[in-house]
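Chain A, query sequence.
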Amino acid sequence: MSKSDIQIAREAKMKPISEILAKINVPDTPEAFSPMGRHIAKINLEYLNQLKEKKEGKLILVTAITPTPAGEGKTTTSVGLNDGLNKIGKKSIVCLREPSLGPSFGMKGGAAGGGYAQVVPMEQINLHFTGDFHAITSAHNLLSALIDNHIYWGNKLNIDVRRVAWKRVMDMNDRSLRSININLGGVANGFPREDGFDITVASEIMAIFCLANNLEDLEKRIGNITVAYTRDKKPIFAKDLNAHGPMTVLLKEAIRPNVTQTLENNPAIIHGGPFANIAHGCNSVIATKAGLKLADYVVTEAGFGADLGAEKFLDIKCRKSNLKPSCVVIVATIRALKMHGGLAKDQLKNENVEAVKKGLVNLERHIENVKKFGLPVAVAVNHFVADTDNEVKELISSCEKMGVKATLCTHWANGGEGTKELASEVVELIDKNEANFKFLYEDATPLFQKVETVAKEIYRASEVVADTKVRDQLKSFEEMGYGDLPICVAKTQYSFSTDPNLKGAPTGHVLPIREVRLSSGAEFIVVICGAIMTMPGLPRVPAADSIKLNNKGEIEGLF
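Chain A, predicted structure.
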């Protein structure tokens, strides 16, 4: 019987965090980092600032095919590739997002890799970690409190209570909080109005946290958040409420990147964590840039399939930070390809080369899409024990025909040893220096046209449908001076379309825009499509049902 992820993590021989940092030449001094226990540290921004003249390493983006219930393993592959690069003698760091408590207790049950390709300490990482998400939640809700307090004490700014754009947040899936009434109970409690909660990872504070370059940039962006409008539709910003100062204070420690280690004692930076289906889906700019100064190679991931995470990483994060990836690794599994080929989850154990062939259209689409950004591509085949030689052969030969090398990876079972071939392929790709990175659209492109570009070029939709209210809202954003911002599409992760049941590589579908939101602090426009929710609900049987402490005080069920 194979060991569970949590069992493997618990048996890990972790090294003191000072030894891990020494590998990337971070000195063991109070000026460089602050230990958070024996195995976690926060790097000081002042120390990172001293490295600004240092040459940067090469950036490797890990993305994937469209997710299925069969699993793809982006984080596992990112960790495995990092270990593989270190195995072949390269100085590499993996930069990942922090897991949210929503999925940890909801659908996924943890997000720290798997098997022998994990980051540890797994339990802390998946739960409260260093408290960054709590700090983000507190800063966000401080702004909410200041808005309602301002209205209560005379409303000098003339905020229209019907036009408060700032919701509250919490880091848990709770559908009952999506739409609520607040300030009930009479005069002493304020002016009643409609409100609601999003999940913390959908917060604009989370987006700002992950896109800011430093503390000063963080404070400026927070100040620029549009929180409400007056009756004559004049915008009210967070700085008008003097909220940016105290909110930044709450984030002062959180903004420092967290360093942990892989099972093979290689450094891992884990910092920030917006979802890619409702936000931009990448770890913090500060963390990624720190990695590039501290190592020769940085492996990072973007959430869900390449149509979401990779597109946003490239069009939003890279646009705002001047980051330029050297290559992209697309993760695929035989199991997931068979699902895209029409098989149900309970049919995946049996060999079916035809289903693999049919499902390959999904991988092919993602390869084509990534190449539109001018980046070289490698495919990582995340191996499962039920995969047959014939199925793997079909996948590898099909990729060859597409002009891309697919490499079988066994990191789940073998750690870095199972990704040495992929690591060598990635280094070879980078050494060829063929990357000619470009964005999908220009800053000056009108907002609706930006949505159309992503919809048609990436999702292969035939058209974008939006009612007059949405179109007028986009025009209004342009008139307010926000027309040059990138767009961040919120849609289902399970399909190129907005229908989660439409697998493979659909074409000719329609992208319906339900709502648009201005994130003037994060500096992008959120375009909400289909039935996607910014406050998810728990599934019928949540992961929480099986999470408990055993009689030794150890956590069980956090897989």
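The chain has a mean pLDDT of 95. The two ends are 15 Å apart (CA to CA).
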